[in-house]
Amino acid sequence: MARSSQQKLKILYMLRLFMEKTDEQHPITVAEIMEYLSGYGIMVERKTVYDDIETLRLFGLDIINRRAKPSGFYLGSREFELAELKLLVDAVQSSKFITGKKSTQLIHKIESLTSKYEARQLHRQVFVEHRVKSMNESVYYNIDEIHQAIDGNTQISFQYYEWTILKEMRLRKNGERYRISPWGLIWKDENYYLVGLDEKSKIVKHYRVDKMLKIRQEPEKRNGQEIFEGYDAALFATRTFGMFGGKEEVVTLSFKNHLVGVVIDRFGQEVMIRRQDPEHFCVSVKVNISTQFFAWLCGLGDEVTIEKPMSIRNEYQEYLTKILSNYTKE
Questions:
Q1: How far apart are CA 242 and CA 291, in angstroms?
Q2: Vertex 235, ends 233 and 239: CA angle to 5°?
Q3: Which of 3, 81, 103, 265 is deepest in the core (most CB within 10 A)?
Q4: pLDDT of residue 186
Q5: What residues have CB less than 8 Å from 61, skipping those under 6 apart?
Q6: In terms of DSSP bridges, do strands 280-288 and 191-198 run parallel, antiparallel, or are they unpaired?
Q7: Do residues 190 and 94 touch, judged by C-beta distance below 8 A?
């Protein structure tokens, strides 16, 4: 490489040096910078190094000259703080919808946003023992395809699979493609779900993104704007238990007082809480009635009661009776 070309690359090599190999505990001296550049065949004087450091500062880099030991120059602040990167790593590693392979790739990219020394701290916390991860490598691109369809106001189609008892993937509807007008994505119960209008049934449905295969955008424009106008994904997720659909009802529930935190975690701080008696409180909330909603109630045992409507109260009683019958047969 010609000397002039090397000199043009000098400032870029220095930028990479500060990004990758310096932090508050690992400053670098001018002599070490000169040695680093010489490894690329770039010979510089001390004054040139100081001038280039000042140029990088003017560019916006927070390069600090530390005079106490260990002394030297280091990059003081970055786009992301270490604590923020740890949160990103945790989110990637704990996400079921991202495959193990893709998780590793993303974490390596996150590590590149800090020094190699601080990246070791990220590496130490990426291991979540026996974590169940998606097996669908295309999920990462499915999400991007869905976002593009939403932005472009177009329908999508895809195949959808389920697991057999032999642990084999089987396409639903014999491989027939689903045609959906996509309107939103929800991250719920550690999975990503597409919410949209089924073009065949004209019913709002949701689908696990990691179970979608061969997704593609279609030329037809989306339908369902009148349904999804003012659509609130967070509110939808709150009312839907385990992402199982069902008829929407206003249900009045009675809880023991100590479960107030559970109710706020489930329905949010805006939920209206009314005192029922010294030991109980009531809430009236909109929920999608499903077996998952009943299962959530079961988990709270005799400390929660459906007060009304009676139709849902009776439906829950039938649900419990059916479960109990499995344990009362001779």
A1: 9
A2: 115
A3: 103
A4: 83
A5: 15, 18, 75
A6: unpaired
A7: yes
User: Distance of CA 249 to CAs 57, 94, 114, 252, Å?
Assistant: 60, 33, 49, 10
Give dist(CA 148, CA 250) in Å, integer: 35
What is the DSSP-derived secondary structure letter of residue 28? Answer: B
- Per-residue b or e along 16-47, where b marks 16 or more CB atoms closer than 10 Å to that residue's CB: ebbbebbbeeebbebeebbebbeeeebebeee
Distances (CA, A) of 64 to 24, 28, 54, 75: 9, 10, 10, 6
Q: How far apart are the C-alpha atoms of 240 and 237, rounded to whole Å? A: 5
Q: Which two tokens stand for residue 282?
A: 């009531």
- Within 135-190, residue ranges assigned H as helices are 139-152
Instruction: Tally Cβ neighbours within 10 Å of residue 215.
Output: 25
Does residue 170 surpass a pLDDT of 50?
yes
- Single-letter code of the amino acid located at 147: H
Q: What is the mean pLDDT of residues 13-26?
A: 93
Give the DSSP letter string of 35-88.
Answer: HHHHTTT----HHHHHHHHHHHHHHT--EEEE-SSSPEEEE---SS-HHHHHHH
Contact 254, 280 (CB under 8 A): yes
Helix/strand/coil for 25: coil
**Cα angle 267, 271, 277; round to 5:** 110
pLDDT at 154: 96
The span from the CA of 94 to the CA of 80, in Å, is 20
Instruction: Kindly report, residue by residue over 111-135, the tens digit of the pLDDT.
Output: 888 888 888 877 654 444 445 555 5
Q: What are the contacts of 45-49 at 24+ separation with CB within 8 A?
A: 49/14
Backbone angles phi, psi at 178, to 5 degrees: -80, 140
- Rounded (5°) CA angle 84-90-92: 105
**What confidence tens digit (pLDDT) does each residue in 252-293 have?**
999 999 999 888 878 877 889 899 999 999 999 988 888 888
Residue of 224, 176, 173 lying closest to 198 (CA atoms):
224
Prior bond to 309 cis, omega within 30? yes
